[in-house]
Amino acid sequence: MKISINRLKKYIALTESPEEIAALLTRSGLEVEGVEEFVSLPGGLEGIVIGEVLTCERHPDADKLSLTTVDIGAGTPSQIVCGAPNVAKGQKVVVATVGAKLYPTSGEPFEIKKAKIRGQASEGMICAEDEIGLGTSHAGIMILDTDLPNGTPASEYFEVSQDQVLEIGLTPNRADAASHLGVARDLKALLGRAICLPEEKELSVEKSGSAISVEVQNPIDCPRYAGVVLTDLKVGPSPQWLQNFLRSLDLEPINNVVDITNFILHDLGQPLHAFDADKISDGKIIVGKLLKGTPFVTLDGKERKLSGEELMISDPQGGLCIAGVFGGNHSGVSDQTTSIFLESAYFSPDVIRKGSQFHGLKTDASFRFERGTDPNMPVYALKAAVKLLQEIAGGKVASEIIDLYPEPAQDFVIEVSYGHINRLIGKKIAPAEVKSILESLDINVENETEEGFTAIVKPYRVDVTREADIIEEVLRIHGFHQVELSENLRTDYLAEHPVKDLNKLQYRMTEMLAGQGYFELITNSLTKPVYAEKSGFLDPASNVEIFNKLSEDLGVMRQTLLFNGLEVLAHNINRRQTDLKCFEFGTVYQKTAEGYKEGRRLAIFHSGNRSAESWLEPAKPFGVPDMLATAERIMTRLNIQISKVTKIEESPFEVGLSLKIGEKEVGKIGLVDEKLLKLAEVRQEVWFGEFDWDLLVKKATGLKKFEEISKFPEVRRDLSLVIDKSVTYAEVEQVANKVGGKLLRRIGVFDVYQGDKIDSGKKAYALSFYLQDQENTLTDKVIEKTMSKLIQAFQDQVGAIIRS
After folding, report:
1. For residue 392, which phi and psi values (nearest 5 degrees)?
2. How far is CA 542 from each of CA 478, 526, 598, 694, rounded to the nearest angstrom?
């Protein structure tokens, strides 16, 4: 769920930063998963100003170009070469200054630089609407009718909207917070500030004679149904502020009528539905159920067979809408609509959930109805929507408000004990603070005694029906972080803490590596002192010496698994077994100033060819991709994510990679230095990796389990990125995984290019992105949106240029 900070400020005064607001909400139980910046136009027209053409002459060396001087409010006029046929002296124009980045309607973004065009200096660009993303016209430059002073940012003239948007992971019990008003209510309690709720205004009938009658056949499924008729509507695009609000929430504007219903839904949490009044037969709405198997065509054009259990909004001729879920194709608002019946209702969560589940339809309306909306909100929301329809679409109220509410919802009455509050929270909270918290949440406190009180909870708080719920409300506003831990507090009665079976983890890893064609090594923990003395990366002073040595060759405990493994490889290579994949679990030892320490390690060895020579293809030697692939398999098996891969050039490697989890190095892989191979008498290249097995076990979250293959298709999209040579693939992958989210299943590289077709110091990656939704078939809109986010992230975070 997305929440606009700008809209929140209409309800409550906020001086805190979005990050501070996010922390407050998360602490109180509304987990903020991220804060995104929204700009209604890409780049926010930064660096683009209003200017005035002071002079305009033909370019001396080009017939189709004009040489202009433009006042951009900088004191000295700027000389700009312009190719538009309609540029002229005295015009107010849009000017992109030097350094501005333009985001055209089509094509790639580009930066304005000082240039010479046919021998004349040009310091900026006079813009057409498509060049700054405002439209598609390129017939000429934009000519403005404005008195704004020269140098005024174009963002002011075009009313560019900037906002911060909170992404809240709403839990099922917090249906009351599924709106801007709901979040504002929590902030009211957290910050101790009042919220400003617009006053409910009475409606007067402006044009009578268009009443719609309503019959509710299932009052249990529909306890409240309200509606009103509006006529003389002009359906068209919404004003810019409304479009910007919807786009900030990732909603696409449709028309002013539908946009207003969406605005009210996200603002107040009350879903509305607009029917074309002229398409309601006999002027009658029937709220009830239709026969099983009845065909019904929804707004997406699909014919669906009704189950007979879903609640329907119908007229005497048939269904108009699956109540609270999805509208019908026949009765929807179109460009030709002039009259509507606007519905605002409270539906039983159970019946909405059944209809949504049966038809596989998850909408913003069903999301709220099936969790529970406010039964006292429908008329208030209806009036707020009518006011907007009058202002934006020119609508006239043509009937009295219909409000069928035979049994108004009652407040929840809950008896609460102070003793229970203090026992469950784990600390004593003063009764005055308890009362203050509850009243800030619109929960009235009555019948107070020394032992407790009666809490009166409004029905929109569908999750607060018991004493324990009241105590939870007190705790989340008081703050979990303010409950001190007792010195003798035990957690074993709260949750299970399964002990990791180290032998099982090692056995499963051995199984996996053996299945990949590796042979296991088991070598002696004793080794030669000379290895530490001549290796250059081991400290001889850290050797753990044996008092009663059997021989000098077995005089110390090993500090690394490298040399014991190299000895095994040398033994096999000398016997013409040159293609080797091996691994070893073993303990390493060191002497320190404090005493001795030891740790478990996992070593991987590659040497020779990964595939043998054949008539189909030549032999392929091992390389760093093979080592990295094995490292990734190890991490995947343990449910661990490598967070950082960096290049290293240090012993024992000629070239290698450091693998980190967070800021801790979990292992190194690379090509073993030639002098170390000679030390162990190995006569061919060896790739080696050593992992801190103790750290891996500590970070492991359990062995990777099998998961069901998705029944929804996977989609592949390719991109070619030109980036600096200093940018690693790991950095590109990290950006992609962060931005792609759950839809991005994996990334592949199918080409790497460095050559004369791109700038020196650059390289090109051809990447394939595999997208898949585990719950739905991906639409073109979702795919394009995801790829656009990836492209933008690559451009902003790794300086990539997208090759077409």
Report:
1. -95, -40
2. 53, 14, 12, 20
- Can you give the pLDDT at residue 702? 62
HSE-CB for 786 with a 13 A CA cutoff: 24
What kind and span of H or E run contains 155? helix 154-157
Please tell me the predicted confidence (pLDDT) of residue 489. Answer: 56
pLDDT tens across 328-358, in order?
Answer: 998 999 999 999 999 999 999 999 999 999 9
pLDDT at position 495 is 52
CATH code of the region 412-480 = 3.30.56.10
The Cα 178–Cα 266 span in angstroms is 7
Q: Each residue of 105-150: pLDDT tens digit?
A: 888 999 999 999 998 999 999 999 999 988 888 889 999 999 999 9
Class of residue 209 by CB neighbours under 10 A (exposed 0-12, middle 13-18, buried 19+): exposed
Task: Return d(Cα 298, Cα 89) in angstroms, integer.
Answer: 56
SS3 call for 519: strand
**Neighbouring-strand partners of residue 753:** 764
Nearest partner of 723 among 776, 658, 793, judged by Cα:
793
**The pTM of the whole model exceeds 0.70:** no
Nearest CA to 45 out of 160, 162, 136, 146 is that of 160
Would you tell me how many other CB atoms lie within 10 Å of the CB of residue 231?
Answer: 20
In the predicted model, what is the mean pLDDT of residues 426-437? 94
Please give the DSSP secondary-structure letter assigned to residue 485.
P
With beta carbons less than 8 A apart as the criterion, state whether 520 and 584 touch.
yes
CATH of the structural domain 2-40+161-191, one choice from 3.40.190.10, 3.30.70.100, 3.40.720.10, 3.30.56.10: 3.30.56.10
DSSP labels for 361-425?
---HHHHHHTT---TT-HHHHHHHHHHHHHHHH--EE-SPPEEE-SSPPPPEEEEEEHHHHHHHH
What's the chain's length in residues? 804
